[in-house]
Amino acid sequence: MTKGWEDNFEALLAWLDPDRERAGAKYEEIRHGLVNIFNWRGCSDSEDLADETISRVMKKVSEVAATYKGDPALYFYGVAKRLLFEVNRRAQSKVEKITPEQLRDTLVADDPDDNSEEAYECLESCLQKLSASDRELILNYYQQEQHTIEYRRQLAQRHGLAPNNLRVKVYRIRAMLHECIQSCLKTRTANETNSLENHD
Q: Distance between CA 29 and CA 9 in Å, rounded?
């Protein structure tokens, strides 16, 4: 344990409360709250993430303590929110990208040209139009071949949804993708027709 860490920790406790005993209790309360937040968001390493959050606050406490107004716990939770964003972004980058074929059956199966390259390109384009959260949800949902109760629960938690709302959310995203794909294909067809007519 370095002296710098000890100094930062002492500064952190002093910021939480001038009384050392009350500061210690406040520290434990905040850490418990952080663990609960990460657990609720479906993180398997909630304890480590809570400690990482505290570590980040400790590095900034000398700058923050003098000017911060309000309950220090709220500052911790703000740092935790940013850390969650980083974790989700890293997790998304590690997820193997779902292939157009895996979504094709439910999204473009009604099209006579559902096997065409145009349909795949439209699917890719429409996926990019979704929010990062919705895109991650739909990709993760279809990557799991068999949706166990536990998998759906974890996926719902990760996206801040009640388990019963997961299917509704997925259905709405599928509907948006399907509509987007149809529109994209029609536009491509119209453009191709116009191009052929202009060359006649």
A: 16
Task: Sketch the domain layout of the chain as residue ranges.
Answer: 3-94, 100-199
What is the spatial distance between Cα 97 and Cα 140, in angstroms, rounded to a whole number?
A: 9
CA-wise closest residue to 134 among 175, 163, 186:
175
Helices (H), 41-71: 46-64
Residue 184, token pair as written in the block: 């994209």
CB 58 within 8 A of CB 2: no
Say if residues 54 and 34 touch (Cβ distance below 8 Å): yes
- The 10s digit of each residue's pLDDT in 129-150 is 888 888 888 887 776 655 567 7
Nearest-10 crossing angle of helices 20-40, 72-94: 30
Name which of 62, 69, 71 is nearest 26 in CA terms.
71
Cβ-proximal residues to 25 (8 Å cutoff; 6+ apart), any chain: none
What DSSP designation does 132 have? H
9-60 pLDDT, tens digit per residue, is: 889 999 999 999 999 999 999 999 998 888 887 777 788 888 989 989 998 8
Distance separating alpha carbons of residues 150 and 139, to the nearest angstrom: 17
Q: What is the pLDDT of residue 112?
A: 42
